[in-house]
Amino acid sequence: MQRYFMLKAISEVDEQAIAIDGEIFHHMSRVMRMKVEQQAYLVFDEEVVVKAEVTEILDDHLLMKVVEHIHQSTELPVDVTLFCGLPKGDKLELITQKSTELGAHHIVGFPSKTSIVKWNDKKRLQKQERLEKIAREAAEQSHRSISPDVLLLADINEMYNMLAHYDHVLVAFEEAAKEGEHAQLVQTFKEIQPGEKIAFIFGPEGGITPKEITQFESRGAKVCALGPRILRTETAPFYALSALSYHLELQGQ
Amino acid sequence: MQRYFMLKAISEVDEQAIAIDGEIFHHMSRVMRMKVEQQAYLVFDEEVVVKAEVTEILDDHLLMKVVEHIHQSTELPVDVTLFCGLPKGDKLELITQKSTELGAHHIVGFPSKTSIVKWNDKKRLQKQERLEKIAREAAEQSHRSISPDVLLLADINEMYNMLAHYDHVLVAFEEAAKEGEHAQLVQTFKEIQPGEKIAFIFGPEGGITPKEITQFESRGAKVCALGPRILRTETAPFYALSALSYHLELQGQ
What we know:
2 copies of one chain form a homodimer.
Chain A: E1 3-5, E2 18-20, H1 22-31, E3 39-44, E4 48-57, E5 62-70, E6 79-85, H2 91-101, E7 106-110, H3 121-141, E8 149-152, H4 156-162, E9 168-172, H5 174-178, H6 184-191, E10 197-202, H7 210-217, E11 222-224, H8 236-251
Parallel strand pairs in A: 1-3, 6-7, 6-10, 7-8, 9-10, 9-11
Antiparallel strand pairs in A: 2-5, 3-4, 4-5
Helix pairs in contact in A: 2-3
């Protein structure tokens, strides 16, 4: 069943007559060709998910009523931010889509020393908007109750300042994989408590520089390997998020 | 350092004067512009990996000598086959590349009832060849010592017959995720012994039909969920392989 992010609180609507207009109305009436009595999931702020039914279709909007509040959560029990060194081409699109399916809450792109892309402010904000749209579509499709936000930084120093706000910061480092490091990821995962904030840092294709690693470490980051194989910049986040889900959502239960 | 799959046994070469010609010679001399004394990893059959050095460059081939045998393994301790319901577009390319990085050994495409693509034999074999090339490049880049083979089946019945050859068969099923199933993946992973053969089955976009599930189950397959979120057909293998690596390669040590 289709899922829509309402981008407002449920307290802002009348649960017996929710008016749907704009883009969502267009999608429901034109793309999905929904009729009266057909249902969809509506996702409101604060992870409120309801099953709602169409009661009336008008020219430029339609009305739905709530038939059920859904309480099963599809969200990771921790708040996860990915910091990705800006990669080439459309890899950030792939990272955003897949990481949303795999449970990330925030995606931050940062210009690493080895990043090749250069965007002016206008281009950067356009790209950010496009990525947020990709995240919202992936969140709807994967039955998330939170649509991840995307932030593209113009300067790595902004990122250094952000790192203080996390309970755990992990940096995926290729050299750690080559040296056979295999304890840090498990050790950190074992320390994680529900509700904590976790940050993962991934370099672009050219990798993270030793200077950047030092900056991260001085802010509490731990270097880890994601298994013994060398993963591409866009593949590493998939491993980290899948392992986190396996550890917290499947194994803990 | 660059890595090349030699596609022969090390016993077939003289370790003090390995002659390199053809495609690999072209890549070393033209693309990488390697000179005498420069090094690369050469990967031979049976997971034999050596570091070798260029000793002489000639017109149509070059010579290398082995300087070190590498004993650190980058392979999962079990043999993993992915069975993927043939998806649309170039998703099989993405699955092949990423699953190779994440450690798969064999990738098998099968026509599920809901698969939309239809290939004649010629097209199917061309696609298979192309996917094997993508796998080899990803295996080189991710420091594998095995390059996965790719097989595209013309008929799902061939797949049913293959399932008898595995110690464990898991089917990722969207309905299991929706129903909150979360025990089977961990339970199977805990039963796995080194050297065993594992198969994962993933449906195409339209999902696996109940009839297909019954066929899989009658051959010993267990239905499992990959966390509570609904993953796209190309994302599910990333989760399964990452979780397997986390369980066997990081957590067990």
